[in-house]
Write a structure and sequence with these properties.
This protein is an alpha+beta fold. The chain has helices spanning 12-22, 71-75, 102-116, 119-126; strands at 28-32, 35-40, 42-50, 57-64, 80-81, 92-95. The protein has one domain (12-123): Aspartate Aminotransferase, domain 1, CATH 3.90.1150.30.
């Protein structure tokens, strides 16, 4: 049985996340477990998630792989959370709203992308 869809294509926050994520070379969007995921071969972004150990859902959030050196500092910020399932693998979530800093979101996605993307895709990004 497929997962229920847990997003709305007309969500303006999702539209912004898509613009940022799909601008990265060789990126695709795939719906997995009812949520949009962004991939370059492997997944580097996930729209929406829930808090580990809780049933609290954050439908307008972005899950990403942080730079290991920044992980602790990010978790100290109340906008960030440890997501269920992916948190055990080093992922974090950031809560998004109309006032989100989209430059910061782009930087977080860029760092996540660089951890999983093939060298040729990273070279395309760096040549821009």
């Amino acid at each position: 049985m497929p997962h229920p869809i847990m997003f709305d294509d007309d969500d303006p926050i999702l539209v912004r996340v898509r613009e940022v994520a799909l601008a990265l070379p060789d990126t695709t969007e795939v719906v997995a477990h009812g949520r949009p995921t962004f991939r370059c071969g492997k997944m580097f972004g996930n729209y929406g998630g829930s808090v580990k150990g809780s049933r609290t859902r954050h439908d307008q959030s972005l899950l990403f792989i942080p730079d290991a050196a920044e992980r602790a500092a990010l978790l100290a910020d109340p906008r960030f959370y440890l997501p269920a399932y992916l948190g055990a693998y080093g992922w974090l979530g950031i809560l998004l709203d109309d006032d989100s800093d989209w430059t910061e979101v782009a930087e977080l996605l860029d760092a996540s992308y660089r951890q999983i993307a093939p060298k040729r895709s990273i070279a395309k990004l760096d040549s821009r």
